[in-house]
Amino acid sequence: MFAKNSPFEDYNISELEDDPPLMEELGINPDHIKQKTISILAFKHVDERLLEDPDMAGPFLYVLIFGGLLLLAGKVHFGAIYGFGMMGSIGIFTVLNLMSQSREIDLYRTVSILGYALLPIVILSAIGVFMRFSNPVGMFLVILSVCWSTYTATSFFETLLELKEQRWLISYPIGLLYACFTLLAIF
Amino acid sequence: MAKIQTSPFAHLSQESLPTFAGVKMISLDNPMTQYGLNATKAFAGSWFSNFWSSLHVYFDVTNTYVIKKLQLITVPYIFRGEWQQELNTDGLPGSPKYNQHAPDLYIPLMSFITFILLSGLKSGFSGNFSPQILGITASSSIIFLCFELLIVYGGLYFLQCLMPSILELIAYCGYKFVPCVAIAFCSILLGGAIYWPVFLYFSVCFAIFLSKSFKRYTAHNSFAYEVESVDVTKQSFLYVVGILQIAIIFFLGYY
Question: B214 is in which domain, residue-wise?
């Protein structure tokens, strides 16, 4: 057990060496996070094996960066982001499960995918620290990032749920969700 | 000595139960496991899972179905003739994937949410937005919908028509949010003066759509004998339904 060998040691060292490394124990896999981020940024098709392993660490990181960037722009919206994100995720989870006839998805995976697809909006908020969005260029950037996020999330869900003829039908609620998110954060 | 009883989970072995990263989550030694497994068995036949599976049929839609349905709602006069529906073996409308005229719940749900967001946007443009407006619009729309459901259901029942199920009726009456969205969208884009012509056009089209859809219910008689003549009461009920839709769309857009 954890016995002291001498007054100068806190624990028996050999017990600690048997524990797995901290990142593996927490379930954070930085390599997966990096691969998913690059595939979103470069529009590469995501390997299904990566999608099968959902994790919350990437989305959590994105949401923290999002909140931090909004803070830099002078808006404190952490509670609204959290509440609205949860309500929207539960809504999307319900609609997706109702619409998919052959497969099912669980809430954890939905929130994970929606969080990963938030990346273009994080980039938008990074730009938003330096400029206002009321001019036409700003509106164009807003619309572009919402479309990008929606496209990413839709292609992830389509791969997971085998929805071939319902692509626009799932992109509509996801697009509404991201548009509201952007409105919340940018204006 | 107590009799050794066979465990009710004798067919299960510890290896076949799912684990979470190697840690066993369901332990057969624990007496609470029996409680949990009984609860899941009870859930399988419960009202919630039956409700969920009946709801599932109404969400079985495709892209082409949604486009054609929106065409039916906004320009119903293009589609002449009787709107035949193929029925299932138990008399309910078939799945929306195979049948153009079957009701679905995806379009009403999405148009309801869009309508609430557009009302919020409209009030934002006219300067008096608050988050309460979204809640007020949502709850007043639902109250109007319930009120109308009562009237239509009661009318169909007392006129001895073929009764639709509640979900079908919610679907048909929920389609009215599509013209509401169209009217709100046009009045945001084109300004307030265009409101009345647009409102008249979309609400009359929707009244035509709904009356033609309900013909399926009023054409039948719930008694066993055949009725030769067309019932005037049932025809005028269809007109009443149409006028009711116009009134409700007016009230929904009023706020």
Answer: 104-254
